[in-house]
Amino acid sequence: MKKLIQTLKNIWSIEELRSKILFTLMMIVVYRVGSHIVLPGINPVILASSTNQNASNGILDLINTFAGGAFNMASIFALGIMPYISASIFMQLMTVLVPKFQKMQKEGDSGRKKINQMTRYLTVGVTILQASAYVTYLRQTHGTAIMPGFGDSYFWLTTVIVLTAGTLFVMWMGEKITDKGLGNGTSLIIMIGILARLPQSFTQELVAKSSPAGQILIFIIEIVILIAIIMGCILLIQGVRKVPVNYAKQIVGNRQFGGARQFLPLKVNSAGVMPIIFAQAIMFLPTLFTLGKPTAISQVFTNHMNPWYMLVYSVVVIGFTFLYTALIFNPKQIAENLKQNNGFIPGVKPGQPTADYIGNVMDKITLPGAILLAFVGILPGIAQRLGVTQGFSTFFGGTSLLIMVGVILDTLQQIETQLLMRQYDGLMKSGRIQGRQTTSAVQY
Question: Which domains does the chain have, with CATH numbers?
Answer without folding.
Answer: 15-196 (1.10.3370.10), 213-396 (1.10.3370.10)
